[in-house]
Amino acid sequence: MVACGKGFMPNKNTSVASRPVLLFYCQHSLGMGHLVRSLALATTLAERFRVVFLNGGPFPKGITAPDTIETISLPPLGMTTDGHLVSRDRRRTVERAQSLRRKLMLDAFHALRPQVVFIELFPFGRKKFTNELLPLLEETRSASIRPLVLCSLRDILVGRDAQGDHDERASVLANQYFDAILVHADPQFARLEESFHPKTPLQIPVHYTGFVFTEKQPAQTRPLKRAHQIVVSAGGGIVGEPLLRTAAEAHALVCPHERVPMKLIAGPFLSEADWQSLRNIVKGQPGLSLHRSVPDLCAAMRGATASISQCGYNTALDILRADVPALVVPFAEGGEDEQMNRARRLEKLGALRVLDPQHLDALTLAEEIRALPRFTPQAVTLDLDGAQHTAHLVEELVQAQLSQQRSDLRETSPQ
Questions:
Q1: Where in the chain is the domain with CATH 3.40.50.2000?
Q2: Hey, is 372 helix, strand or coil?
Q3: d(CA 300, CA 232)
Q4: pLDDT-derived band of residue 150, with 50, 70 and 90 as boundaries?
Q5: I need a labelling partner for 352 at 20 to 30 A (CA). Which of 71, 74, 293, 394 fits?
């Protein structure tokens, strides 16, 4: 890993250095779902490419990049729930961090001369990071041998107040700078055009890869029996305090009658103040425990009788793979509708139950906790091999571009 603020040093491992170079940009701003998915993709891509990972946010405890990829940690930036850009390093202002990030990104591009530039979410999101991404994209256009430029998208985009203007801008930028869009979803579950409506149509291909996840636990170690326990999780935790606190309050209402053990998993980004507040609530409450994180959330769900969570991309996949009776309370502050959109689709398929966050209170959640063990989730068949499909697709696109470049060179060469 290259520390933030330092120049890029090329990998001297000849077996890796001989592979086509893929420069992977990832900016996780509020939670850690984008980072988890991007690392799963980068890890699989590293089987075929030399992957250099531009990491734009802090690495949470318990998550590390594998040795098979090279990581450049940019001065970390993030977003508040009300959409403001903030520095995650107290030593640097946002402006100073932005300046350093631009330099590091361009230095890496010039040193590596990548065959592929792989950008997560932009231009369909990350508008506040435009001033570092447009210079990088301009460099790809002016390179003597132009790299393949790909956009990596999750299943569902966030709805916005000025949706039309946002979608139009995204489509124009995608057409101008990108060669293809990779949507990490099963098209039977969600398609890009369902949450993206520009006036200017996309002129570049859209490929569906299937959903992306990381299997952390081998099958033979999975618990054979479910423990009498409810697991409550909040993703990265930065916006999880209301759900965790309400779950603890609901447990106090349920426990005297039914004595259901409950494990609260706070997440690495839960603030220290909220962590201490939850610790005080948990103290002296029988059957209630609080944990910062667990090695494998899917395994924890698989070993429980019920799950309560939000409905981010990775959490939703964990629920489906765990086949656990699940209640989701989607995050929906600041106009965010992506999680609710995903939750309602899964609810329609019979995979889980949904509680609107507007109705989240201790009494309502206690009633849901009592009902949840009687809910039997329906099996949902979706393509979950997105990482391998992505790696294969990127390799094919690189070969197609190389063939086209050779053909163009022959046509322009003097006879």
A1: 14-213+385-412, 219-374
A2: helix
A3: 10
A4: very high
A5: 293
